[in-house]
Amino acid sequence: MKKYIYFLMTLIVLNSCSKDDDNQTLGNPVIEIKSELSNAMFGDNLPFTINVNDQVPLSTLKANLYFGEELVSTTTIRTKTNGDYTGTIHIPYYKNIPNGTATLDFILQNTNLEITKKTQNISLTRPDYPYLILVTRNGMYPMEKTGDYQYEATELFPNTDLPSYIKTPIISEWGSEIIFGWEDGSVTQGSMTDIPFVSSTAGRFSVTFNTLTYEATPFFEIFVNDQKMDMVDKSNFKTELELTAGQEVIISGIDDIASWWIDTDFFTKISDNKFTFKPISGKYRISANTTLKYFRIETMLGNDLAKLQPDGTGAIWVIGEGIGKPSLANEVQWEPANGLCMAPIGNKKYQITVVAGKTINDQSINFKFFHARMWDNGEFNATTLTTTGSIVFVGDGATPDYLGNNRDSGNMGLLQALEVDATYVFVVDVSAGIDNAVLTVTKQ
């Protein structure tokens, strides 16, 4: 009996020692935050000092910053030995983020992958800058504070066009310079691309900016039926909206609209800024180019540019040489992004109207019709598109134009020179199927 009790006690002792050995083998990472981390500002590079220790070698210390549930910044430090480690965590400066509390997690891991975590809440505020700096190509101008997050520079600027970016001063020991530039059609933090400020009046005018909302002025603004067009860059604007056949379309914000080129496939002019929409009802993208002074209209399907569908609905695009809008100076060439959208006029027919010597080359053409404004999404060739008449032909690789030049399958060629200043209407009819399309060309 004594031998049996001794045997059990020995097992208990050995088992206890085994567990202690396991704990010592795995380790127990310990974190001590030695910095005051309760307050900071957006844009800060917040320093921290952390004491770490363990019985086994350590691996890494990570600092993860969260705005709500979103991880917005991270820092990793190698921790080979016990002791104090210092680092910084960047606090992002974002648009429309109010003052609030962020969460900073410190995660310590040893070489056995044992982990411990300690969390610190940080109260964050948006910097209240005493001024901003407007950086133009001709110099820098102070932007004075005029309200909460609102700043303004009023000067006798040298031009109505004022490409520039905005930067902040550094107002704290942890702070950083914040840059505001232009990206994807809007003011963006972190970009040094010039913001395309432009004033409608020359001489003395104001540039304004809000560091919370990123709203800025002045910009050239164009409206279609009271819907503001998005600025892509200084010269290009766009909007997407549902339009109905026969609907009245009013364009405002363009003082010299009477001098703009109007695409008669899409609009009938009522007055300088009032038009009737001609194609079938649907969603369209309207783009305005203030340099070339014309509107480009493109058919859409949902949120994307339309493609020709198997049932003949959708869109047909013109890509190639010898055609361009608003003039041949803006020739499409073999650039899909420049492709011209034919107007859908109903009954699965698509139309494009051109003027010889102005929007179509009167001596030679070499374009074709595509299912989409891109390669490899379908195109018409000599077996899927036919035409009759004495004006154009569909290339088959063998038939020459009137100048003796062959055209590849599906490419347009001229059977005769076009009459300069005469108007020609191209209509592609796919009502018999997209593999049985018929092209008609009529001189008006």
Shape: elongated
SS strand fraction: over 45%
The figure for the number of domains is 3
**Count of distinct strands:** 38
Radius of gyration using CA atoms only? 34 Å
Q: Which parts are unreliable, with pLDDT below 50 for 5 consecutive residues or more?
A: 1-20
N-to-C span: 120 Å
Mean pLDDT across the residues is 93
Proportion of helical residues? under 10%
Structural class per helix/strand content? mainly beta
The biggest beta sheet is recorded as: 9 strands, antiparallel
Count of DSSP H/I helices: 1
Q: What would you say this structure looks like, in words?
A:
By secondary structure, the chain is mainly β. The protein has 3 domains: 30-125, Immunoglobulin-like (Sandwich); 131-217, Immunoglobulin-like (Sandwich); 223-443, no CATH class. The protein is 6% helix and 49% strand. It contains 1 helix and 38 strands. The protein has one helix at residues 2-26, and strands at residues 30-33, 39-41, 45-53, 58-67, 70-78, 83-90, 100-110, 115-125, 131-136, 139-147, 150-156, 161-167, 179-183, 186-189, 195-198, 204-210, 216-217, 223-224, 227-228, 230-233, 236-243, 248-252, 267-271, 274-277, 282-289, 294-301, 304-305, 317-324, 331-333, 340-341, 343-346, 349-355, 366-370, 385-387, 392-394, 412-414, 423-429, 437-443. The strands form 8 sheets. Strands 9, 10, 11, 12, 13, 14, 15, 16 and 17 form a 9-stranded antiparallel β-sheet that branches. Strands 2-8-7-4-5 form a 5-stranded mixed β-sheet, with no helix packed on it. A hairpin with a 2-residue loop joins strand 20 and strand 21 (236-243). It is elongated, with a radius of gyration of 34 Å. The N and C termini lie far apart (120 Å). The model is unreliable at 1-20 (pLDDT under 50).
